[in-house]
Amino acid sequence: MxxxxxxxxxxLLASVTLMSSSAIAQTIGFSQIGSESGWRAAETTLTKQQxxxxxxxxxxxxxxxxxxxxxxxxxxxxxxGVDAILIAPxxxxxxxxxxxxxxxxxxxxxxxxxxxxxxxxxxxxxxxSDLVHEGNVAGQWLVDELDGKDCNVVELQGTTGSSPAIDRxxxxxxxxxxxxxxxxxxSQTGDFTRTKGKEVMESFLKAEDGGKNICALYAHxxxxxxxxxxxxKEAGLKPGSDILVVxxxxxxxxxxxxxxxEANATVELTPNMAGPAFDALDAxxxxxxxxxxxxxxESKLYTQKDDPQKVYEEKKDLGY
Length: 320
Ligand code: AHR
Fold this sequence. Notes:
Elements: H1 4-22, E1 27-32, H2 38-53, E2 57-62, H3 67-80, E3 84-87, H4 96-104, E4 109-112, E5 125-128, H5 131-146, E6 151-157, H6 163-176, E7 182-189, H7 194-207, E8 216-219, H8 222-234, E9 244-249, H9 252-259, E10 265-268, H10 274-287, E11 294-296, E12 301-303, H11 308-315
Parallel strand pairs: 1-2, 1-3, 3-4, 4-5, 5-11, 6-7, 6-8, 8-9, 9-10
Antiparallel strand pairs: 10-12
Helix pairs in contact: 5-6, 7-8, 9-11
The chain binds alpha-L-arabinofuranose.
């Protein structure tokens, strides 16, 4: 029989071998925006899980929605000499200096889910969806659903100055452009949160004859849509029929709303941005393989026809 010492020695050797073969980067800093939405929570959970599975020491910093906190976190990661940095940038502008500092320190940076306005020489790659396309898919769904019927639309935008707020607005407008039956009558930020989504929807309903003048809501994320659905119900209207609801993310709660007939469509954004990011970093650190500047994830449309209750069951324990 093997002694306890021999068993411990063997298992230690096995875990050391596993760690060194599965992770090239040992220490990675992750500057996360915060926890404004269910989608963001899932991205955080998956990034931590992926890091653990790969034996990476992930230094996590929650910026509480503030760019200044993200810049501070990046500088602290650079000072600690991490092997790489992941960042989900809260807004698109204002990153040049800190990205330059990371570059000078030879620390590769990977952008997650949102883009920056800086030169792409300043980061290794970006993992995300085509945000304009997402808005386009949502808009096209509405065009098809209305089939020429007149419709006044209200829009809940994401965080002002963030790339998804800018691009999802543009994509939606491109899709409805030229369809004179559809009018975007109000548009305001709900900051990607449920609370703000509800608050702003209440003000839209008030301003538009208690909602009688509104035919559809387009929300840049599901959390704002869920907040708005509550506001619509409190105003005595039926979300999903009196006011159509289309949004983006595909979080479990929107599938519950779809199953109840209170939401109509959502465009999926995968929260697993870290998997492709870690793969790209591994290849780059192993032999200098440069990834493409943009690693694109899929954007799938779900409607009430896609068995929303089943999708809810599949997604509900995935960290949202
Ligand atoms: O950048 C992705 C967006 O950020 C998600 O759609 C939204 O839910 C999140 O807050």
